[in-house]
């Protein structure tokens, strides 16, 4: 009986190990593709859009959005995901180069707490403004997941990616930088979860998944 039990365990263990190896291989191939998808440069920095959306997460993003607005790349700017209690004057104080006359063209959103929330907050802004196109400003490592969320929430809006490049994130030769590798692995796993949630929403039409 003992020998039979051991043989049965081996028969079950073999397919499990093979399945695990296959899953890891698929994950690894997808991760390499993801790292190549992370922007290394701005592909379109000149086209005009109706609006600009900055996802909070650093002064470099904010300064980039304000510079684009100053250069009249769009009519209005939305800063999404601002902490409650922080007003526009405080945000502008973070950017010494932001002229005060820009205040009339800037909206701030306090409702978003994550990237999905940013997309939903922007969707409401788009409905209010009637804009048909926007330039999305966020960190380059965050851009793939942001585009996934924004394209899902705003399927009829033309979105131009405008990544910024944090100095501490070394995308080229990322494997040599443990901090960057850990950051990219985390972003990739989040990207997979967002994709799965969206595909499930498309298949089931469950409202809370949207």
From TrEMBL:
Which biological process annotations from GO are given for this protein? Gram-negative-bacterium-type cell wall biogenesis; peptidoglycan metabolic process
- Highest taxon above the source species: Bacteria
User: What keywords sit in the KW lines?
Assistant: Membrane, Transmembrane, Transmembrane helix
Which Pfam families does the UniProt entry name for this protein? DUF218 (PF02698)
Residue limits of the DUF218 domain?
50-164
Cellular component, GO, one term: plasma membrane
Q: Where are the transmembrane segments?
A: 12-34
Q: Does the keyword Acetylation apply?
A: no
Keyword Transmembrane helix assigned: yes
What is this protein's name? DUF218 domain-containing protein
């Amino acid at each position: 009986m003992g020998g039979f039990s051991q043989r049965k365990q081996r028969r079950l263990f073999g397919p499990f190990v093979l399945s695990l190896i296959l899953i890891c291989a698929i994950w690894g191939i997808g991760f390499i593709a993801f790292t190549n998808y992370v922007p290394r440069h701005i592909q379109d920095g000149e086209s005009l859009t109706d609006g600009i959306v900055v996802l909070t997460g650093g002064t470099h993003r904010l300064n980039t959005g304000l510079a684009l607005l100053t250069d009249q790349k769009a009519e209005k700017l939305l800063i999404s995901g601002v902490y409650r209690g922080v007003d526009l004057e405080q945000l502008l104080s973070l950017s010494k180069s932001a002229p005060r006359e820009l205040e009339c063209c800037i909206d701030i959103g306090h409702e978003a707490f994550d990237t999905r929330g940013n997309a939903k907050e922007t969707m409401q802004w788009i409905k209010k403004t009637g804009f048909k196109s926007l330039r999305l400003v966020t960190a380059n490592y965050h851009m793939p997941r942001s585009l996934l969320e924004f394209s899902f929430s705003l399927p009829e809006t033309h979105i131009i990616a405008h990544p910024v490049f944090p100095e501490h994130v070394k995308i080229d030769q990322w494997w040599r930088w443990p901090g960057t590798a850990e950051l990219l692995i985390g972003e990739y796993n989040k990207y997979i979860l967002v994709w799965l949630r969206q595909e499930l929403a498309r298949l089931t039409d469950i409202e809370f998944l949207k």
